[in-house]
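--- STAGE predict ---
source: upstream dedup step, 1 unique chain passed
mode: sequence only
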Amino acid sequence: MDAFTAGLLQRIRSTEHDLHRAREAGDDFLADVEQSELEDLHRLASEYGVEVSAAL
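--- STAGE serialize ---
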């Protein structure tokens, strides 16, 4: 796995964790921000052919 793929997958894992924590805390604004970030990261992964579901 190259550095780009590893970094992207790490960012996705981190953002998923942050999204979960924001939802648990009831912080709707932060949850929306994290959800948008996660969607952008998934879009980036798709554009570069990075398989997210199998790697996480």
